[in-house]
Amino acid sequence: MSSQPLAAGAPASALAPPLAVENLEFSWAGGRTALRGCQLRIERPGLWMLVGSNGSGKSTLLRLIAGLLQPGSGAIHTELKPALVFQNPDHQLLLPSCSSDLQLGLPEHLSAAQRLMRVEMALEQVGLAGFGGRPIHTLSGGQKQRLAIAGALATDAQLLLLDEPTALLDPTSQGEVIALIRRLCSRPEAPLTALWITHRLEELDHCDGAARMDAGRIGPWQSGAALRVDLTPLPGGRAER
Questions:
Q1: pLDDT, tens digit, 9 for 90 and up, residues 67-101
Q2: 239 pLDDT above the threshold of 90
Q3: pTM value?
Q4: Per residue in 9-60, pLDDT tens?
């Protein structure tokens, strides 16, 4: 069983998919099963979304891919370095200023000049150029979430795991975060792979593929538009099937 990233930080080979999950099983200490033979395969970089109800195993899956949890059985294969972005950025922004927080996750071998350059580049990529000295408590919710994404970029993560990153944001900030991830996954040079959990059906319009997760298993990939139609309630609350 391989549950950790393989050759983390290395570029994906021409043959290996960005991410493959095989027969993943996970149960909590109390005995509740979260994942049951979970299968997932992402064939190319892009923005991929999972939709499911609370308790379907979505957040558990991201934490397993990130290496924060260990599966009971099964395997996770990726040559990409993963980074988890939480729903609430306050849970991962730890230091007072934008620059100091980003530097926290940088490799120790970098020189002071390299560290500064890495931080400035990450901030620029998320639309926060010049924010290095800004106290984090002065940022809006959307800016904090973009800073959390900058933290992943600063560490050279190539696989972004986004756990409902817009759930606490206003509509304008939601759109900014989606547009940012869409841009990072579509850039000609080194496009990222992003696995995004959402409850917002309108966000499915922006993804490269979407799948439904239920009771610890993931359905087939389909277009975001198709899955949105399938999940949109009809009059009277009956879901279209």
A1: 999 999 999 999 999 999 999 999 999 999 999 99
A2: no
A3: 0.89
A4: 334 445 689 999 999 999 999 889 999 999 999 999 999 999 998 899 999 9
Q: What is the sign of the dihedral through the CA atoms of 142, 143, 144 and 145?
A: positive
- Residue 151, pLDDT > 60, answer yes
- C-alpha 80/C-alpha 48 separation (Å) is 15
CB-based contact 153:126 (threshold 8 Å): yes
Q: For residues 145 and 163, what is the distance between their CA atoms, to the nearest angstrom? A: 11
Contact 196, 50 (CB under 8 A): yes
- The whole-number pLDDT of residue 4 equals 39
Q: How far apart are CA 3 and CA 1, in angstroms?
A: 6
Do residues 87 and 164 lie in contact, with contact meaning Cβ atoms separated by under 8 Å? yes
Q: How far apart are CA 67 and CA 159, in angstroms?
A: 13
In whole angstroms, give the CA distance from residue 91 to residue 53. 22
Contact indicator for 197, 163 with CB cutoff of 8 Å: yes
Rounded to whole angstroms, how far apart are CA atoms 160 and 166?
Answer: 14
| The predicted structure's pLDDT at residue 156 | 93
Helix, strand, coil tally for the chain in percent (to 5): 30, 25, 45
CB 68 within 8 A of CB 26: no
Question: Sign (positive/negative) of CA torsion 97, 101, 102, 107?
Answer: positive
